[in-house]
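Record copied across here:
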Amino acid sequence: MPVTANKLFRINVSNDKLTATLSLNGDAPTSTVSAEQIEKEIADLGICIDKQGKKNIAKFAAELEQQKVPEVTIAAQGVPPKHDQDGRIEKLYESPSEESEESDASDNKTQSHYDRSNIISVKKDQQLLRLIPPVDGADGTDIYGKTIAHKLGREAQMKTGPGVEQKGDVIIAVMSGKLECTDEKIWVVDKLEIPGDVDFSVGNVNFGGEIEIRKNVLDLFKMHSKSSITVHGIIEAAEIHAEKDLNSLGGVAGKEKGEISAGQNINAKYITNARVRAGQDIKVYTEIVNCDLACKGSLTIEKGPLVGGHALAFKGVKVKQLGSEADVKTLVEVGIDEDLRLKCDKLTPEIQLLRRKAGKVRQVVEPLLQNQKYLNSEQKEKATELIYLASELDEQAESLTEELRCEYQKTIDEAVFEIEVTDTLYTGVTIRFPRIEAFITSPLAGPLKIVPRKIEHTLQILAIDKNSGSKHTLIAGVTNDPMWDTLEKLFGPLPDPADKPEEK
């Protein structure tokens, strides 16, 4: 807006009062005017002129003197206010897609579609969000020297729901689970509910809490839970692990690729063609067919058979049928602990190495001991050191041997050496207890209890009719398992499973 009435020039002030422009009042100059006169008239308006403004005014006046038409120039310039930056929310967790992109960038590999999940899993005490405070701005000054107040920034705000809490400027998870977050609220749920199938719309899942899947887990998907997993539909050729219980209400159809495992118990309608591991019991309602199965508890099938594959149960087996009329090869091991086998494989080489080292040291020191009277003080000291070293190596070997011996005794004490068949035991089945096994050559009708027993100091396997009490000795032989030979070589004769008192 023009604020002067000078016939030669005029001053326009912007609406925000931050700029004053100097321009010719007309199409052509009719006279001249000094820079000082222009400055005085501007100053009389209360406008503050800075150094740049004075330069611009001087140039304007010089062009007038040269009878030139000067361009519009800035006579005065204020300082605009710098408004506060609003507070913001910094995300401290990574979504699955972000993790995948980082992995892809580092590995230069294409991400599997199975890994593309929209589920955000967080851990207890994990930092989720940081509330960044507003960034301070500064007031401005208009061309009249008056202060222009800056706008204050808004604080960042986020409501917290269950499973999270705010500590200072950080929001953290107070439990493991699934993260839920909107623009206004954040919370964590300890149970992940998947309403449909686990397919490409869900992706692989690694979750810190309980998982419930309403339908099926499709081929090649992976599920991991630090708690329990319940699947209402069928588990196909997938990889499922629950650190607590795994419940498959629809059954498991592994297609020779599926793997299921649980830190505690597995309960299923049926299991076929899968690898199965349980830290405690396995209970199946209808059947187990062609599986590689192991559990540290008991194995129970309520209504049907155990057919084909390899089943290892530390605390006994109870099934309706064992094997099938088709004589399908089926191996059942009872009272054998996989942990003992792993510990034996690990410790035995260490024990043997320590004993060999001790033997070599004694070979060196023995000639010295036989000629002690000819040894000088330095040689005697060396001999003493070697004797001490050999004793130390022997002690280490004996300590590991004792550890292994205790593990074996624990196995014998805790194991249940019993198989119960309520209907039929078919041919083609191999029954294995520690150090003895029997191959079934003719069907036996149940209900039967199959146990290892010593008969005239010889370890045998008996099939006991639970109705009549009659006993049938199965044709048995020594188990072809090198672990037992290794253990006996390490610490002598072992107690037999038949030496364990029979449970009432």
In short: The chain has six helices and 35 strands.
